[in-house]
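Aim 2 progress update. The chain analyzed this quarter is reproduced below.
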Amino acid sequence: MLAVNTNTASAVTHNALTKTSRALNTALERLSTGQRINSANDDAAGLAITSRMTSQVLALGAGYQSGL
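Predicted structure tokens:
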């Protein structure tokens, strides 16, 4: 007869380690780039606003360079 045992403590520990690892990776990404928003996953609305503002700043800079 086949017996199947589940190591619940190991499963809980594995889930906690996975969650902590993801949090660490996110923190390291933010530290290495110096930005609060690195992807849409962080803050989709904030990323959209930032992208729009960046485009406007670049357009103003291009207009300034061309003498407008």
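The helical segments are 8-33, 44-65. The chain has a mean pLDDT of 86. These observations will guide the mutagenesis experiments scheduled for the next reporting period.
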